[in-house]
Amino acid sequence: xxxxxxxxxTTMRHALDGSTFTVEYPDTAPEVSPRFRGVxxxxxxxxxxxxxxxxxxxxxxxxxxxxxxxxxxxxxxxIGQCIYCRLCEEVCPVxxxxxxxxxxxxxxxKDEFALNKEELKNVPWYKDIDPLEAREPDRxxxxxxxxxxxxxQ
Length: 153
Description:
Layout: H1 2-16, E1 40-42, H2 52-56, E2 62-66, E3 72-78, H3 87-91, E4 97-99, E5 114-115, H4 117-121
Antiparallel strand pairs: 1-4, 2-3, 3-5
GO molecular function: 4 iron, 4 sulfur cluster binding; metal ion binding; NADH dehydrogenase activity
Domain 4Fe-4S ferredoxin-type: 38-67, 73-102
Region (Disordered): 132-153
C-alpha cells in the first residue's frame, strides 16, 4: 500500500510541475535517434546487383528479378513485412540501399507497402539528413568517386 501511494505521489509531482514529454506531432517534428531505422532508400546507379541484400534478408522482404545477362530488372521491397534489422544495408558493398530516418509512410492496403526501385529512389530523407554524410569512418574515399551524378545527393 505504501508503494502504491509513493508511486502515485511521484506521478502527481511530475504531472503538476508543468513540463511536458510529448511532441505536438505533426506540427512539431520529433527528434529521431541517429540510429533509428526507417524506410529504405535505393540507388540503382550504385547497385551492382550482387544480390547479397536479398540473400541476407531474414524474412524475404527483398526480391530481385534478373535477366539472362544478369542485369537487374526489378528490385522489390515489401516494407510492410520488413523488420528493419539493417542487415541489407550492412551487407551492401557499395551503399546502394540505406535505411533513412523517415518514419512517415502510410498506406490504405498492404499492396501499397510493396515498393519497386523507382519508389524507393524517391523516398525523401528525414529532415534532409543523408546518413552517408554522417557515417564513420568516411566511406567517400572508395564509394561514389566515379563520373556522373548520384541520386542520393
